[in-house]
Specification:
Layout (H helix, E strand, L loop, with lengths): L6 H7 L25 H8 L14 H14 L3 E5 L2 H10 L7 E5 L4 H10 L6 E5 L4 H7 L4 E7 L11 H11 L2 E5 L4 H4 L9 E5 L13 E5 L1 H14 L5 H11 L2 H20 L4 E5 L9 H7 L6 E6 L3 H9 L5 E2 L9 E3 L1 H5 L5 H6 L6 E5 L5 H12 L3
Parallel strand pairs: 2-3, 2-4, 4-5, 5-6, 10-11
Antiparallel strand pairs: 1-7, 6-7, 8-9, 9-12, 11-12
Helix pairs in contact: 1-3, 3-10, 4-9
Amino acid sequence: MKKYKKQSTIVLHSGQEFNTTGAIVPPVWQSVNYQAKDVIEMAEIAVKDRPVNFYSRYSSPSLMQAGRILADLEKTEDAVILTSGMAGISSAILACVSSGDHIVAQSNLYATTLKFLRDVLPVYGVTTTFVEQTDNNAFKNAIKENTRVIYVETPSNPLMKITDLTYIGKLSKEKGITSIIDNTFASPVNQNPHEFGINVVCHSCTKYLGGHSDVLAGAICGSKEFVHKAWELAHVLGHVLAPNDTSLLLRGMKTLTIRVERHNENSLVLANHLLKNKKIKTVYHPGLTSHPQHELAAKQMRGFGGTFSFEINSDYAKAKDFIESLNICKLAVSLGGVETIITLPAAQWKPFYTDAQLKEAGIPESLIRISTGIEDISDIIDDIEAGLKNV
């Protein structure tokens, strides 16, 4: 198995040992099951780690190839591809905890992750203490004897706060606690948390890794031992990615590096442009020197990503009018696709938060989150400027 060092080469050539056909484009392994030569062989295959020639709920050659690419990108021993980002996040956490255990997590999180930690896990006897991610001591002070996981997300959704990965990596090692990160916003092109001591890296592959808004997938990256443990749980729960979706993911990953470079460039140009507009109150972009954690972001990120937020000097109604007047920027959920996607976080988060919790989380009603696509940046800017005339 040849190892490649450069990311642009990894996305094209890693994991080729799993494609035994010689086809340049990996086949879609549509078969659900595979014939064994005898009963003994079938029994032996059934207990292997992610066998590719047994039953497709366990794995397939293309799933293993995609996992190898992502593991090499994240510089971890192994990775497993699952059905969604939440399949990855929930499986990784569940692989670490049981009834009576405790988690420390930052408070500014993807809304569904928050719901999983806050509303789902307590039913099974697992509790979570939420802390401010910019306060290192808050993580340390929240740890209990039964703490099994420290969970972080950086940059965070949607306020683009930065968590100190070096500190979290050292803290988790010192305390013997598993650290888990959602690295979706950064992508492995911009940030490799494992280099800072983070044990487990999760992704919504639906976003930058797939890149074309046409596949729902997730991943867990880590040691071989942890990935196997998480896979054993995930495949029992049925988190297997379908063959055609796996093929779409593999195709999308081939252009990951060049796409993310364009996302990085476009978002920073747009963020700097918005700083000059009097109708913009605040721009939350870690690549800006005005961001309160810019220096920390620059230490642990190679690029600052395509997604950021900005606050309009207006109320909720005007923010809504602004978004609905746009043409190029599409109102939709998700992010990381080639097209520019825009949303109003307060509207999406209201089902998960009370008004008091929304205020406590620091999410203004006129906050706009934008996932900058790879269109010509001048067209994106023109679209935004035309929309701001309605504010």
